[in-house]
What does this fold into?
Amino acid sequence: MKSKMMPSIIAMLIVLFAFVAAIGSAAAVPSATRTLPSSVAPGEEFQIMISYSDIGMMGQVNETLPDGFTYVSSSLSSGVVTDTNWVKFTLLGGTSFTYNITASDVAGIYTFYGTVKDEDKNVAVVGGNIELVIGVSPPTLVTYTITNTTITPPQTTSIDVRFSERVGAIIKIEDASGNLVNELYTSTGVTDPTPKTWDGTYTNGTTVPDGTYTVNVSGVSTTTGLSVVDTSKTIDVPPPNYPPVASFTFSPSYPVTGQIVSFDASGSYDPDGGNITGYWWNISGTVYTVPVFNHTFTTPGLKYCGLMVTDDEGNTNNSAKWVNVNATTETPTVSIGSAEGSVGDTVNVSINIANATRIGAMDISATYDPGILNATNVASGSMIEDLPAPLVACSLIPGAINISFVTYPDAIDGDGELFVVTFDVVGGDNGESSVLDIEADAYTTDVPPQYVSVGTADGSFVVNSPAVSTVSFDPLNSRTYMGSTTTVNLTLDSVPDGLSGYNLTVSLSNQSIAEIISVSFPAWVTLHDNSTPPADSVWLKAADLVGNVGRGDTNISLGALTIRGDAAGVCDIMVTVTGMDDDDGDPINPGTVSGTINVTSVIPLPDHDNPPTDPDSDGFYEDLNGNGRIDFDDVVQYFRYMEWIAENEPVSCFDFNSNGRIDFDDIAELFGEV
It folds into this structure.
């Protein structure tokens, strides 16, 4: 076997031939390339290929064979001269040839050397493979373990390797594209390095993103120069596991004792994309385990409301709020409604009051986005209209509304509508919104007036794209009295492509104020169905099987609802369209406009158990004794309690001559109806 110095001798020869070529002829230098197998067995016969070029008409290749190797044969038919350690090949054209030799019986790494000469005697070293391995095995990994194949930084994992022989070793981490992430270890000679630790970071210490990372272990034998490379093992870094976000709302914002408060945690979420699997509430000591529920506070004060949510990986998070609960008889709440509409629409928004007690004066201010809305008018609501002579002043400037009123010596009590603000929708994209922010100060009718702390509830306005059709109520704002009924029509303003049927739900916002007691359908309906009244919410379903409603029809009646007033106050009437199709079977997506019903209260006369009623539904309560009909006893009761009626009942309910007061002519009018 040749000495390890052989590569140095070859290098010197290469330099020498390069020098000779540099000072020689400027003609093209011949070239040749040797192709060897990577390894052979001791004593095995194998083949070597020589590829050559630029030799001219006749060239020559001289191959020096390592010790112990024997020439056998060649693909050339002539021009081969052999000796103990070399073979000379004379070349007549062509581009390549092969020759066979027998390998040495001694294992080791052997070096080949050769030259190529052209017809002008220019000489170059044969390139390509120069080393051949006989009976020598590369190093192997006899130990290779990774303690954690999945880590969440800064969690660590340990990589333990041991080589079969002494090697120059490298242990590094690479990403999915083969880029270096972190070189954990390098050594020029080692067999069993100590285990190496990786904590999911780059070389500069920053944390790697989630993904799969390859562990690249390589070693080059310090004896044979053979190498081992293993990239079979990987380490997964999963996405970070964040805790869930606990979030909840409650309504109304300023509840009073005995009032239903709705809690809603459906806004809670898991930022990892998982699911919220558990809810745990502590509402002043009461536990709930559902996302949405109602709760009633029985005592005033600040109430602790806490929420803990759990995600599907067992992580938890908390949120807490304090709810200021006021006594029912002490703290009124002024609220402004919410609405939606398209640019160019005109919308009305009510300013309401709840739990008013002897309010004689009030200042109200509301702000909004002037880029979306423009307030054009403020009209008195039912609670102001029903007073004899209120003093009302208001100012409208872009983005703000200021209202002041004085009712003294009369007072505002209970719940109802104070004002109606008219807005023009002047701008905004679909989905853009404006907060309707309201503030209020109030004073009692006491002398001197006493300041009253007022709670407020903001509203909002949302811009939407104009709908092709709109479902609304007619009249939009209805009025009735306790114990009386009124009829509200549900209409669809237009159907460009006809109407084949619908499925919708009508609901009342306050179940204590009013109730839907009956439903009727228009003549064009062929098939219909509805849920059973009386109820606070009813669904209606109808179909037109014969084309009664045609393309382009307008103001189509969808049905009529009879609503009974149960308690004084203002109640919203809302409609939700579940499904609606045109005559082509395509869906109609109409807009909806909510209405209101204002219920005015009447109470029994002295020494009577039943309150007065309105038998003919004309808005006047002729049945004063509450027996359900108009009779002469009603005239007697009116005469007997005329002063009491003026002081205790809504004047408009008993003002039969409509002159704004209770007088003897009202008795004459009632007598004429008996």
